[in-house]
Design brief:
This protein is mostly helical and about 190 residues long. It folds into 2 domains: about 45 residues, Homeodomain-like (Arc Repressor Mutant, subunit A, Orthogonal Bundle), CATH 1.10.10; about 130 residues, Orthogonal Bundle (Tetracycline Repressor, domain 2). Helix content is about 80%, strand content about 0%. It contains 9 helices and no strands. Helix 1 crosses helix 2 and helix 7 packs across helix 8. The longest helix has 27 residues. The chain is elongated. The N and C termini lie far apart (about 55 Å). The mean pLDDT is about 95.
């Protein structure tokens, strides 16, 4: 069952990236995976359920990549900035653009309600609490700050993804993100 699930997610990921959610054919997708529509329905309920699994997989991978960038930047404040900047930069990836940033909200609704986003939000909140405890950030509500930082990064990424010239939008988005987040500094 896990093997079939993996095959369906891999085939769906390719189909959703190439054609978008609306134009991805479930018959073509299941044929690509060497499975039937019944396997799709058994594992995911419907096309939307399969799409949610694909978004969750990509979003989880994005979080891991952002964490690696944060770790490479060091600790504390530098890590928080690097993580947000990395997330925004991932909007240049065509698969991320199409599946997570463009089709994701249209199909699955508010990204802040996605399970993968909620786990990222929790990690951001904990980082903010630690930085406030060290006196690096102003004493504000940690959840509110985490939601605003995460929302700024997500909206910057969505702006880039929807842009006709994403490469030219990226530096503008990253500069504005940094300026907004620096407003939380205690200095």
């Amino acid at each position: 069952m896990a093997e079939n699930r993996g095959k369906l997610i891999a085939a769906a990921r390719k189909a959703f990236a190439d054609k978008g959610y609306a134009d991805a054919s479930m018959d073509a997708l299941t044929a690509e995976a060497g499975l039937t529509r019944g396997a799709l329905y058994h594992n995911f309920g419907d096309k939307r359920g399969l799409f949610a699994a694909v978004v969750d997989q990509i979003d989880t991978e994005m979080a891991g990549r952002a964490k690696r960038h944060a770790a490479a930047a060091g600790e504390g404040w530098d890590a928080l900035l690097a993580e947000g900047a990395a997330y925004i930069e991932m909007a240049l990836d065509p698969e991320v653009q199409r599946i997570v940033l463009l089709d994701g909200p249209a199909v699955l609704g508010d990204p802040s309600q996605w399970p993968s986003q909620n786990s990222c939000l929790q990690v951001t909140r904990e980082a903010i609490e630690a930085l406030m405890g060290q006196g690096v950030l102003k004493p504000v509500d940690a959840e509110a700050a985490a939601r605003l930082i995460s929302g700024a990064a997500l909206n910057a990424a969505m702006w880039i993804a929807a842009s006709a010239e994403p490469e030219s939008v990226l530096p503008k988005a990253q500069e504005a993100f940094r300026a907004l987040v620096e407003g939380l500094l205690a200095r």
